[in-house]
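User: I'm designing a mutation panel for Mannitol-1-phosphate 5-dehydrogenase and want to avoid disrupting the core. Could you give me a predicted structure to guide residue selection? Please restate the sequence first so the numbering is unambiguous.

Assistant: Good idea. Sequence first, for numbering, then the predicted structure tokens:
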Amino acid sequence: MTTPELALGSPVPAGAPRTTAPAVAPVHPLSEKTLGLHGERLTVPTYDRAGLTPAVVHFSVGGFHRAHQLTYFDDLAQLDISAGWGVVGVGLRHRSMQEALAPQDHLYTVVERSPDGERARVVGVLTDYLFAPDAPGAVLDRLTDPRTRMVTMTITGAGYHLDPHTGAMDLSGPDLQRDLADPARPCTAFGYIVEALDRRRRAGTPPFTVVSCDNMHRNGDATRAAVVGLARQRDEVLARWITDRVGFPSSMVDRITPQTTADERAEVARRYGVDDRWPVITEPFSQWFIEDDFCNGRPPLDAVGVRFVPDVAPYELMKTRLLNAGHSALGYLGTLAGHVRIDELMGEPLFAAYAARFMDDEVTPLLPQPAGVDLTDYKAVLLQRFANPAIADRLERLCRRGSTKVAHHVLPSLRESLDRGSRAPLLTLAVAGWIRYLQLHEPAEDELGPRLQALARAGGTDPRPVLAVRPVFGNLGEHPAFVADLERALRDLTADGVRATVAAALTRPGTVAR
Ligand SMILES: NC(=O)c1ccc[n+]([C@@H]2O[C@H](COP(=O)([O-])OP(=O)(O)OC[C@H]3O[C@@H](n4cnc5c(N)ncnc54)[C@H](O)[C@@H]3O)[C@@H](O)[C@H]2O)c1
Ligand SMILES: O=P(O)(O)OC[C@@H](O)[C@@H](O)[C@H](O)[C@H](O)CO
């Protein structure tokens, strides 16, 4: 079977690691029954899967959730210090993950790849998967079960419908309106959470903790704003109960996880003898920082490397402003340069220098110091992670949902620089790169994309029409020095091409006040 996402995947590009080992024969399908057969080549769960308590419900099981949160819960189950934290996945939009995982008893393979080699494991902590549109009642039953103590989500930054400038949620969209009109058949994660919390409140069941694992500034506060905002439309008493009783810890999550391609799936079968319908390829690096604000018990994730901290903001700012903003900048400029993968791009000294200077000169001076982290080391490792050829991360993944990611990760640094009276030529160039990209390429998974593209094309080398889109840019268009710098960068990109423009921007002195 081929999932739609796998079918869309492109062939493994040149430079990605190839199987050197001879083909493994025979190749066995992955399932509870065949686990014993896979133990020789892969690490497999040795704990009693049937004994896991379904204590966590996760909304939107994509590649990242499977590479990140589920591997931590799997490590926990493996440690045998707590069998209390099994995970049930819920899909909201596509049936494909259910179709892939159900026939293999919700087992799947994670392959960690670095330039030095790779290792693979089968993850067993996902005990069930529900596709919500088929079974809204079953999802609500699971959420209202007193054993459910924690809800996590990776619904993408765009799934929160937040104005990046005011933090307010836009409740006017059709899905949230349907959640309000028919609360027993919700469409969104927030609709499910609000309805389940209401049922728990009425039944006298304690609430669960809600942990966002999306890349957003203060994602716990954003989630609280969304849940309480939606609840308030229904019932002020419910909204108050949620405010008083529910924990919404913010988290910082990090593990670069590309989308699996069909060729990678075949390679996993060849190399490990496991026929997995949807394996995950990721990097060895992984981090998870969570604020210590749990309202219904805290999983002992600190035993497997998770850091519980009083305030996640310094870690999250470090990660989103360096890594995610860097990804966006490199995604657009690298695509304009004709590259397909970020490791290829980082192999060009010009772009490696751009990435380093972007971080050192313009972003780092704005960051708070996260306790226990050496920012110099962090950035050095980050540049190596970007350059990892073994995960073959494609620039098109970094370019999607631009209006959410540029607004959340790039523009805040730019605005802070301008507020300090500084110019930021490399951040400005990232924005110019996005506008030029919109003129030449189709925006993906971006509600505002078509409108921005039309304005970018109409404006040509004048960025003012695009800057007028206030939900993305706020009042940046009213900053004359920034507009002039952006116009020059856009003109240079158009006339001279991306390499000459990057080279010229690198000669301008860093001007951020420290
Ligand atoms: N991939 C990574 O490297 C990575 C790392 C850190 C954090 N994240 C976070 O995880 C999110 C998901 O990444 P992924 O790599 O798993 O992507 P993915 O494409 O593999 O999966 C995304 C999942 O979210 C669902 N989804 C998309 N839009 C939605 C919406 N508006 N509401 C509800 N569900 C929605 C999709 O149906 C899919 O199940 C990212 O947007 C990011 O916030 C990803
Ligand atoms: O997943 P997105 O679309 O929000 O962003 C793309 C990448 O920047 C992101 O997935 C990173 O790989 C990730 O945040 C690394 O931890």
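For picking mutation sites, this is relevant: The chain has two domains: 24-280, 314-507. The CA atoms of residues 327 and 398 lie 6 Å apart.
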